[in-house]
Description:
The N and C termini lie far apart (56 Å). Strands 2-1-5-3-4 form a five-stranded mixed β-sheet, with helices on one face. It is α+β, with helices and mostly antiparallel strands and 104 residues long. It has helices at residues 11-17, 33-43, 83-86, and strands at 3-8, 22-27, 63-67, 70-71, 92-96. It is globular and about 55 Å long.
Amino acid sequence: MPRVIRVELPAHLRTLAQVDRELTVEVAGEVTQRSVLDALENRYPALRGTIRDHATLQRRPFLRFFACEQDLSLESPDAALPEPVASGREPFLIIGAVAGGQGP
Length: 104
């Protein structure tokens, strides 16, 4: 039975997908970054290539993945997401990273 996963996107991706801040996708099988992103791109084709590279499926620079107050950006895309995300209690967050630093 598919699980309903909550996903929050940054503003520029919400605009592209024409959705509100939080959306849901259905994931059959294990709930991983890969399965959530596959479901998200299947449901919202305009997002293909914006979160992950078309060819390598690697996370795009300046996007980070969070769940349960943990940065999962460097975790394996096939690692299981925390149970609160898999059960729909907590959202999977895709966050726009901020670059920069102190000037001279």
